[in-house]
Amino acid sequence: MFNLILFGPPGSGKGTQSAKLVEKYGLIHLSTGDLLRKELKLKTPLGVEAQQFIDKGQLVPDEVVIGMISSALDENASARGFLFDGFPRTTAQAEALDKLLELKKSSIALVLFLDVNEEELIQRLINRAKTSGRSDDADETIQRKRQDVYRKETLPVAAHYDKFKKVIHVDGMAEIDVVFSGLTSHIDKKIA
Ligand code: AP5
Q1: Angle 64-116-5 (CA atoms, 0-180°, nearest 5)?
Q2: What is the pLDDT of residues 87-128, one digit of tens each?
Q3: Is the dihedral of CA 32, 115, 180, 107 positive or negative?
Q4: From CA 10, how far away is CA 136, in angstroms rounded?
Q5: Alpha-carbon distance 38 to 19, whole Å?
Q6: Which domains does the chain have, with CATH numbers?
Q7: pTM score, two decimals?
Q8: Which one from 128, 144, 145, 190 is the annotated catalytic residue?
Q9: Which sites bind ATP (predicted)?
Q10: From 18, 81, 182, 184, which residue has the greatest number of CB atoms within 10 Å?
């Protein structure tokens, strides 16, 4: 299995680049944000619980998202690999993912970190709010809260993988196709 993490703050382009990467490399896209929004839409008990966190720009409890990822890995047991987007977001999630992959005799090949400055992130999310319909895009205060939570709770995840020299920084400020080329050049090197 060949597994990648696409890492970066809210609005850095993880969803945009994930769609292109899974098509090129035949990986399964696992976005905890997308999985949670599906639950929200269906108004499942998990979705109702998650909504209160998402609407405040807070993280959904670790056990909820780890459970979702564990089920998704089992459901796609014959996959050639996974692209994780928006997960792991805490050190506890990263440690849980390492264990889940170890059980499948696999691991993370690369963590691709999209670098984008905060003002550009907020601008992108304000623009996206016009069309996304996402409740957590509607308000700039919530967007800033998400950036804050990212810095405090999610950035340490990069340090976790840096210990194993798996983190590669890519300029996420460039145009979408240029960012994609930056990502694929690192992935192709790793595959070779
Ligand atoms: P999630 O859905 O994961 O959102 P996020 O990480 O906040 O990321 P976004 O989807 O906002 O941005 P993105 O990086 O995917 O950028 P995008 O490609 O859309 O999480 C939402 C919430 O769910 C969390 O706040 C939390 O509550 C909960 N949650 C999810 N996972 C969790 C977990 N593991 N643990 C706990 N809670 C969890 O791009 C943004 C915009 O910019 C788009 O309009 C796009 O068109 C544009 N754009 C993209 N690239 C470029 C470019 N190069 N140049 C110009 N514009 C660009």
Answers
A1: 40
A2: 999 999 999 999 999 999 999 999 999 999 999 999 999 999
A3: negative
A4: 11
A5: 17
A6: 3-186 (3.40.50.300)
A7: 0.97
A8: 128
A9: 11-16, 128, 174
A10: 18
Tell me, using a 6 A CB cutoff, whether residue 136 lines ligand 1. Answer: yes
Query: Is this prediction's ipTM beyond 0.90?
Result: yes
DSSP string, 114-139: EE--HHHHHHHHHHHHHHH--GGGS-
Q: Are residues 113 and 170 in contact, defined by beta-carbon separation less than 8 angstroms? A: yes
Cis bond before residue 88 (omega within 30° of 0): yes
- Residue 68 Cβ contacting ligand 1 at under 6 Å: no
Question: Could you please report the per-residue DSSP string of 5-18?
Answer: EEE-STTSSHHHHH
Helix 91-103 and helix 155-162: axis angle, to 10°? 50
Q: At what angle do helices 32-42 and 62-75 cross, to 10 degrees?
A: 100
